[in-house]
Amino acid sequence: MNTMTDADMTGGQVREITDFIAKYLSYMLGAGVHTSRVVRNSKRIGEALGVDVSVHTSQKTATLTVKEKGGTHMDTMVVDIPAFPISFEWNADLSALSWAAHDKAMTLDEIRAKFDSLVSKPGMNPVFVLFMVSLANASFCRLFGGDMLAMLVTFTATMIGFFTRQHLTKKKVNHYIVFIVSAFVASICASSSLALGIDTAEIALATSVLYLVPGVPLINGLIDITDGHIQIGISRLVNAFMLIVCIAIGMSLTLILVKDSLL
Amino acid sequence: MKEIVWESIAGYNAATWPWQIALAAVAYFLAAVLFFRPCTWAKIAMKVFMVAVSLWIAFVYYMTFGSARDYSNIMTIFWCMMALTWIYDIATHFSSFQRSGRFTAAGIVILFLPLAYPLVSLARGMAFPEMATLLPSSVALFMLGMLMTFNRKINFFAFIFILHWSVIAISKIGAYDLPEDALLAAACIPSMAIFFIRSMNNLTKECKPSIKAVKALILSVTLALTACMVLVLV
Known about the structure:
The complex is a heterodimer of chains A (263) and B (234).
Chain A: H1 11-30, H2 35-49, E1 51-57, E2 61-68, E3 74-80, H3 88-103, H4 108-119, E4 123-124, H5 126-143, H6 148-170, H7 175-190, H8 192-195, H9 201-207, H10 215-226, H11 230-259
Antiparallel strand pairs in A: 1-2, 2-3
Chain B: H1 2-36, H2 40-65, H3 72-92, H4 104-112, H5 116-123, H6 136-149, H7 156-175, H8 182-201, E1 207-208, H9 211-233
Helix pairs in contact in B: 1-2, 2-3, 4-6, 6-7, 6-8, 7-8, 8-9
């Protein structure tokens, strides 16, 4: 099944496998994959390479122990989880890699080469994302009953908010501050529809910040808790809750400035 | 509401017309210096002028003369944010106010479109002081003209705010009987396509989807926005 059999595995080889699996799982967790899938995939790659893998995860770090099957060599490593943008592509590609490693009996070098090629794929074009997010929010506005003018206002208000977010993120500003500022900017721009007397102005105002809602951490948090990864599940939910509070702060600032009330 | 708006415009024009002429003179003087003898002081002076004229619209036009309008405080905040985009530009040199050699003619046409505002008002049979002069849309149009003429590296923050203002302007055409504002939307929507497509050409790292696909998306959105604006007007 594998070139690295139980008989000829050395401590150095176990260390190499540990290094790779640590990198693999940190990339998956960083890209927003739910924990049970990360653990399953890591174990599958370990299986393909002839080792047992045990993983403990938390919000910022992961600990893994790799043990030679039927042997005495083992290695433990604590790895930081990098903060990558949410990537469904990495989720799918890296999961497929674990199956390929298992089914095709790939060597560690082959798996590593494939992994490097997958994670070095070009990223999304920021202008493309800017336009798609603005279109998505304008569509939400329509779904909630907004008229044509409210949709246009939502489109441009989202564009301003999201561009602000992209710019501040690039400047490495704290992401809670990014959320507060982006929510404030988008909602204050959308509130201009109130001054225009648009019938559905409040729908434009409410939908202008929807692009900030942390959907993936919310879903992952729930999945993690239901799968038994309670600690990281709660961490992810708390993180998502903090982001929602930031959106609320940004929007509240707008409402207090514009309407002198939060309602 | 329409009557209140025009009364506030008339009051604003009657009280501030010498200031408006002075601001327009400074604007075109600085634009001419940047065009014929570009230098650092002129670039900074133009950005400072952009801040000043944005604050003028915020505090003089909206807060003082437009205070009778509903939610005029929102517009004050919006124009303060416009001023912030230019302050940020001064601090970070976001835009360079340099010509790229492309779209200069279109930029010059847009630059002079604000002067058409009072002419259109006169052609509609209106008389001073109840006419379109140095209003928010004409200021936004001047800013757009500057960005288009000197488009080597532009202030995208300011541009997206101007784009948002063009949507607001569209709604004012029918609501306040201000057809002059169609000039801003007509200039702004094609500018969106030009600026974003140019930003695609300047991309240094490989991205996906392909640049061709993103350009097609930008053009599609431009057409969709135009169609939506026409539908709003109809």
